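User: I'm putting together notes for a lab meeting next week and I want to include a structural view of one of the chains we've been expressing. I don't have a solved structure, so I'd like a prediction I can at least talk through. The sequence is below, exactly as it appears in our construct file.
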Amino acid sequence: MANIINIISCGIVTVFLLISIAFAGPHLLLPATAMILTILVGGLCVYVAIGMFQARNKIEKEWEAENPE
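Assistant: Thanks for the context. Below is the predicted structure for the 69-residue chain, given as structure tokens.
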């Protein structure tokens, strides 16, 4: 669920920045493009981190099932 929310929020922010480029003109192109890249790279980092946490939880559950204390 968190991955879906992450992708949707990155898409919404990117659309808002593209709209701001359209309304403000070409002089906003460079800063808005940098912000779009930052949002997308940050979203990718969050996506990877969520995947790592899910894999870690799966491995922990498997290990606890095999090694009861």
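A couple of points you could mention at the meeting. The two ends are 32 Å apart (CA to CA). The mean pLDDT is 89.

User: Perfect, that's what I needed.
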